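Quick illustration for those who missed Monday's session on complexes.
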Amino acid sequence: MAEEEQYQKVANRKDLKEVGLLKIEPNRKSIISAMVIGNVYAVDSICSHKGGPLAEGSLGGYNLTCHWHYAVFDIRNATSMLRMESPLWCFGKWRGGLQ
Ligand code: FES
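Prediction with FE2/S2 (inorganic) cluster bound:
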């Protein structure tokens, strides 16, 4: 399989704002994407605590906060900052933003 066939375009560069959250749904999988300091990160959009919608949360630096019960995840690796919740699914990081 050619390398470009492994990727699916899910958004345009202009759709993603610095320190903003963007919900995308490639192959019916709900993911949120965020750009911090020019790097793009993608994690599961469902909070691992009790299923809160992380797209409605907030991003401060690398900290993604779920607004249901205020769990905080590191958007870079999807781990819980307090180690109380399971890590989120992490879909990767792209240096330099989207092409
Ligand atoms: S559902 Fe996200 S912190 Fe509880």
